[in-house]
Amino acid sequence: MEFLQEFERILSELSAHVREGREISYRDGAYGITEIISCPKKAQLRRQHPDLEVRNIAIDDGFLFEKTVKEVLRKIFGNRFEEEKVLSHDFTVDGEPFSIDGHLDCFIQYNSNKIVGLELKHTVLSFDNETSGRPEELIILQPNSRRISINYKYTLQAKIQRALLEWQYPDKEIEHYLVIKTTLRTRYKMGKSIVVLPTTESISREELEEIIRMFRNDPRPRANWECQYCIYRQHGFCNGSESTNTTL
Known about the structure:
Elements: H1 7-19, E1 30-31, H2 33-36, H3 40-48, H4 57-77, E2 81-93, E3 96-109, E4 114-127, E5 138-140, H5 152-168, E6 173-185, E7 190-198, H6 205-217, H7 231-234
Parallel strand pairs: 1-3, 4-6, 5-7
Antiparallel strand pairs: 2-3, 3-4, 6-7
Helix pairs in contact: 1-4
């Protein structure tokens, strides 16, 4: 049983392996999309404690999925593929400047006229509201479908990404997709699936400016569950707060 003591080190090395090469940076004063639709205080604490990060198997599974998909896309599309494409945009909201540095998981120059963006997600469990049998391995959803439960923050992030792509590439046709790997539960069965949801709507500039306004002026978390999983609360840097409980 001597080898058992090695498993903790193996797990640590596995985590380091899937995160290798994954570096995301922001311009001074700029915020990411996920930050502005989540708890504003968490965004500030992340900058104050940059070495503190969440590490668990579920997150590492997501990084592994991302890494594998990006390797495949690079093989298929070559230099027409770019990972973690920075989508920057500067705003003036209520007379004050505000900058967003969005990071798109997968950017593909599909042809001379079309750009395709993919945002990759990995969730532990999702529910199929229409199917009773074994889940299909690949499910292409219709736009705005309610067949499968999808975190509203994912679809909001996708709408913001699509808008930033349109503003950055006004002369190109834009396609955007959420690609989610999940364990899908139907009425009677469970199985692993890849769910693809086309993003056909973009957030308006006015809607995004209102999100920025909320981010600046209301420090509360946006969802009830955020404090429960917050690493900064777990380490005593925040006592938590009642959420706005808004879907923005």
